[in-house]
Amino acid sequence: KAGVTQTPRYLIKTRGQQVTLSCSPISGHRSVSWYQQTPGQGLQFLFEYFSETQRNKGNFPGRFSGRQFSNSRSEMNVSTLELGDSALYLCASSLVRDSNTGELFFGEGSRLTVL
Amino acid sequence: KNQVEQSPQSLIILEGKNCTLQCNYTVSPFSNLRWYKQDTGRGPVSLTIMTFSENTKSNGRYTATLDADTKQSSLHITASQLSDSASYICVVSEGNFNKFYFGSGTKLNVKP
Lengths: 115, 112
Description:
The structure holds two protein chains of two kinds.
Chain A: E1 5-7, E2 10-13, E3 19-24, E4 31-38, E5 42-50, E6 53-57, E7 64-68, E8 74-78, E9 87-94, E10 105-106, E11 110-114
Parallel strand pairs in A: 2-11
Antiparallel strand pairs in A: 1-3, 3-8, 4-5, 4-9, 5-6, 7-8, 9-10, 9-11
Chain B: E1 4-7, E2 10-14, E3 19-25, E4 30-38, E5 45-51, E6 56-59, E7 62-67, E8 72-77, E9 86-94, E10 99-102, E11 106-111
Parallel strand pairs in B: 2-11
Antiparallel strand pairs in B: 1-3, 3-8, 4-5, 4-9, 6-7, 7-8, 9-10, 9-11
């Protein structure tokens, strides 16, 4: 069974550009969540989608957005990139988004560098 | 304020030795606590998930304990191996809004 797939694995952008990251969850998983990981802040929750609906959102500016498609694949977009957006962006999928028992399966991440 | 704090920030041990990592939390209402292992440049991998009623849970050489009264958890690694070198992240799930709170992690370095 394939794991969570994130593309691209690495990318370099310049300030002011925008970027789109993609996440394909484990087959059958309907919940996808996104996280930003930086050395200074650690892991921070961005947003979560279940059946194409955003169910939760973290404390990030509106430049960060996402969506989920009918096949459960998800994309996140960051517009008007800033130097501080340089980070590892992780996607996780879950069979059922149940905080009592659901396990999160993480992808390898997309490492974004903003110059 | 819901928070998760881990200690120590970093730890160096010799191969074959045991070690214990700590996690204190103030998340309420509590749903469950998870420990993840993250190798450098890779995504986190789940080690254990514990609910309120579970005091201890093992996964091979990894044993997690939970004291819900004092809101403390520990991850004990037995007979460490070089492959245990990684960051270990404690994650607490909040019960009302399905939100996760992450610790900043403990970076473990196992030396030969």
